[in-house]
Request: fold
Amino acid sequence: MLLKKVCLNHQLCDILIKGNTISQIEKSINVPDEIIWDCTGKAIFPSFANTHTHASMMFLRGIGEDQELFTWLNTSIWPREAKLKPEHIYPLSRFAILEMIKTGTTFFCDMYGDADETVRAVNDMGIRSMIPYVGMDFFDENETERRLNQADLFLSGPSPSGRIIKGTSAHAIYTCSERLIRGLFEKAQNHQTYFHIHLSETEKEVHDCLNKYGCRPVELLHKWGVLGPKTILAHGVHFNEDELHILADTGSIIAHCPTSNLKLGSGSMNLQKYLESNIQLTLGTDSVSSNNSLSMITEMKVAALSAKQRVGSVLAGRVSDILKIATRNGFQAFGINTGRIEVGALADFVLVDLNNPLLLPNEQIDSHLIYAADSSCITDVICDGKPVMQNKTVTNETQIIDEFKRVVWELNRL
Amino acid sequence: MLLKKVCLNHQLCDILIKGNTISQIEKSINVPDEIIWDCTGKAIFPSFANTHTHASMMFLRGIGEDQELFTWLNTSIWPREAKLKPEHIYPLSRFAILEMIKTGTTFFCDMYGDADETVRAVNDMGIRSMIPYVGMDFFDENETERRLNQADLFLSGPSPSGRIIKGTSAHAIYTCSERLIRGLFEKAQNHQTYFHIHLSETEKEVHDCLNKYGCRPVELLHKWGVLGPKTILAHGVHFNEDELHILADTGSIIAHCPTSNLKLGSGSMNLQKYLESNIQLTLGTDSVSSNNSLSMITEMKVAALSAKQRVGSVLAGRVSDILKIATRNGFQAFGINTGRIEVGALADFVLVDLNNPLLLPNEQIDSHLIYAADSSCITDVICDGKPVMQNKTVTNETQIIDEFKRVVWELNRL
Reply:
């Protein structure tokens, strides 16, 4: 595939994609018999990596507005989730991925039940994902064993695609026993893969951790030996200096979810301080039930503004930092060689319409992507060298929407 | 015009528009010879009132990122604005109004030079506006007189449409003399119209006001007699309790601009406290140079989240409050009988596509409008009973964009 006359960093160029890789970027490239894609009037950007979400929660968009995390979980979310059956997960995940694609995302790190069904959805939709088996035992030992066995089954099964990383996840330190958390981490480690957990989302969690375990959440996980460069901590709102040091030393990954944290009253992370602590910082939307969007574009705007609000300085949440945590950092954290438009990188990218009024004038287009763009600006999305959206159309879009509506209708009747 | 099968508050109904007014809302309406608009699959919402912006600043989108207000004004904005000529204002304003329409806005309160050109643009684009003559004298008495005379000329000329309110505006207390501010307010008062001013945007402004005048900004304007139900104060980030009392007593209007305030490091307004103080609170985007968007949808999301962040509570920035400040309150402040879908109200509204994936499932659509929607969800915009966007298309869209590009190109060469 040969992109002709595409705008990259304010310069027109041609970009040759061979297989799933960017193989050449030049002022002009001519290759006989190559499929030509005329990109006149379009700019190329790395696609987004959404490092924390729960794809299958799409049926809960906007449920329980203006409630705090624990009220929201207990009264709005968990009772509705109890109705879910495994067969709902595939259509719900596909619908989530449709929204991700339309808003320019080609990778997400998930956390939900019936992970095999999500694997199937990602495989069919053509994007990338880290999909963990998720455990939660509420400190019941029988449940711990059952969960660990299930994790084995999930990890030992084949992955249908190189685009899909299988891993493990424990919900949180307040829903999972030490044995489950260590066990799930070890299983991930044995398979050289990733471990994902919610951590330090609220002050209550930190307080309860201090009461129960006599130390703070990061210290606890460090003691249990489950931190490291393949451990992704979602939220991480309330880390203190000591915890940030441990996270930097162990190379652990933070999935910052500013909208969700503000919407559920969990607190506001100090982005600038975290960046200066040299930890691996990435960006996630969380699910639509606490956001209520999967758009990484909007998430970047909220990340930038809430970072400035947090410390009262315009120097926090700078354009270049925000773009980096939403693209390059996210892919890098998961060992995926993309998040940048360079020769040798995997061909994951979006094309945006330079004539869309929201992006005019084009001079400051990097900041427009954060502050002015929306899904209407994205025309094409490419993942692993293959188009997953062309001219604003995703394959089977109508069928995916209809199927989603059917599931919602069914769940509302249960 | 008869809207058939439109969704209003989760119920299907028919809505009859007679002239510029909503004249009937029933389960089913049949009127012979009326133009029928099939709204199957669409929901109706009030359009937005954007109560503070500078429409002609479109050429400055994204200029001077991550700078504070005064640095940004002095080094990024004012030197570029100095190049503007009166003939640029019409195409720049039209382009701004194009973005407003595409994001569902049918009224804006402006503040910019060459106001006659903006009046012409609003008239041609078919939406509503309060367009003031804007004065700034930098405390030079000759300039004061010149400005006051110009204000007279502007106000005494006819308004080309009932959709357009002419008024006056002084830039700010740190750029305008007492005589100019009082004079411009009085001229507005003599014409029974509105007076607009930036106020209490930064702590520096408050501090300088205390030093120079021995009182806080609201106290100063109160002493000068320029507060009241036709005075719109943009930003108002740093009002204390006493000032809030004065504002409630005088019925003055606040245009809250959360994105701009955070982006320029001006501070974060305490939305919840202001709401509880019973002041007239409305919402504005400010210009694209400090936002960088005119979308009231995104502004609502930022308003809700920053309100929650400001006080650390989910009960701040509730869905119903945010929708109200963005619609009903804004129109009401300017005496425009709309901002709600009711019989007798002016026919200003948007239609949204209920099948757009961003709005699914539809159950919580009020909160989706704030938290999940973007411009891609809005299909039609009606102002004063007439469509200004139909099926996502605004009349002369391509010409408006081309003309804007030509102006930007010209300004970049000067």
Summary: DSSP finds 15 helices and 16 strands in chain B. Residues 85 and 414 of chain B are 11 Å apart (CA to CA). Chain B has a mean pLDDT of 97.
